[in-house]
């Protein structure tokens, strides 16, 4: 229904952002809301997916069309809903997800919340060999992640925000507490805390 929204990012929370366009504030759930922190109060284009179910109607947003395409592909897999698809994309490296599917790496896929062996196998069966045409740019760049760390404004607050975001993605308090000591020695922005935490969780 909606391909994208061009508007101003007015609010960022652990689960969603609010984009104002044409005098309307759209609540948009994203894989990592804090990745939009540098765009707060700035106009930008967000690619959107309008999800409609009997008991749920929601708008999901992505910084690139490729992320949106992978999200829709994941939704077509039995056992994966919007929350699960967002958690998979929140790692910030969709290329690794594609790589795991192509190489049938179930051990990597089951590390995402809500993904068991059955769902991981279904992802491979449904998507292997079908992603290159839809996401050609992901294949030559697999595992070439470039990390840019900005100077944090408030490290304690940033870490707290990151923990809330991880909870909203489906990770348990036990899982988060286990990696928290590794994060407390870092001085990062919220977005980078989330990415670092996901790296630990996916090991």
Describe the structure.
The protein is an alpha+beta fold and 203 residues long. The chain folds into 3 domains: 59 residues, OB fold (Dihydrolipoamide Acetyltransferase, E2P) (Beta Barrel); 74 residues, DNA polymerase, domain 1 (Orthogonal Bundle), CATH 1.10.150.20; 47 residues. The protein has 8 helices and 5 strands, in the order βββββαααααααα. Helix 1 packs across helix 2. It starts with a strand and ends with a helix. About 6% of the residues have low confidence. GO terms for molecular function: DNA helicase activity; hydrolase activity. Keywords: Cytoplasm, DNA damage, DNA recombination, DNA repair, DNA-binding, Hydrolase.
Write the layout of secondary structure elements.
Layout: E1 4-12, E2 16-21, E3 24-29, E4 43-53, E5 56-62, H1 65-75, H2 82-89, H3 94-102, H4 106-109, H5 117-127, H6 155-169, H7 173-184, H8 190-201
Parallel strand pairs: 3-5
Antiparallel strand pairs: 1-2, 1-4, 2-3, 4-5
GO molecular function: DNA helicase activity; hydrolase activity
InterPro entries: DNA_helicase_Holl-junc_RuvA_I (IPR013849), Hlx-hairpin-Hlx_DNA-bd_motif (IPR003583), NA-bd_OB-fold (IPR012340), RuvA (IPR000085), RuvA_2-like (IPR010994), RuvA_C (IPR011114), RuvA_C_sf (IPR036267)
Region (Domain III): 154-203
SS summary, helix count: 8
Strand order of the largest sheet: 1-2-3-5-4
What's the CATH class of the largest domain, please?
Mainly Alpha
Topology-level CATH name of the largest domain: DNA polymerase, domain 1
Q: What is the assigned CATH homologous superfamily of the largest domain?
A: 5' to 3' exonuclease, C-terminal subdomain
In N-to-C order, the SSE pattern is EEEEEHHHHHHHH
User: What is the mean pLDDT?
Assistant: 85
Level-2 CATH architecture of the largest domain: Orthogonal Bundle
CA-CA gap between termini: 37 Å
> What share of the residues does DSSP label as strand, in percent?
15-25%
């Amino acid at each position: 229904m909606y391909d994208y929204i061009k508007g101003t990012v007015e609010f960022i929370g652990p689960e969603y952002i609010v984009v104002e366009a044409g005098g309307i504030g759209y609540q948009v759930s994203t894989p990592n809301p804090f990745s939009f922190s540098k765009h707060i109060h700035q106009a930008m284009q967000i690619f959107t997916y309008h999800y409609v179910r009997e008991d749920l109607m929601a708008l999901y947003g992505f910084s690139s069309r490729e992320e949106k395409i992978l999200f829709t592909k994941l939704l077509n897999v039995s056992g994966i809903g919007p929350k699960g698809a967002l958690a998979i994309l929140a790692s910030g490296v969709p290329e690794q997800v594609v790589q795991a599917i192509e190489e049938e790496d179930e051990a990597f896929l089951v590390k995402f919340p809500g993904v068991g062996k059955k769902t991981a196998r279904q992802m491979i069966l449904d998507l292997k060999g079908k992603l290159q045409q839809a996401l050609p740019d992901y294949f030559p760049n697999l595992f070439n992640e470039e990390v840019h760390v900005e100077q944090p404004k408030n490290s304690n607050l940033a870490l707290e925000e990151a923990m809330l975001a991880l909870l909203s993605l489906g990770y348990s308090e036990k899982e988060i507490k286990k990696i928290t000591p590794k994060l407390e020695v870092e001085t990062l922005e919220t977005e980078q805390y989330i990415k670092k935490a996901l790296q630990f969780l996916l090991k």
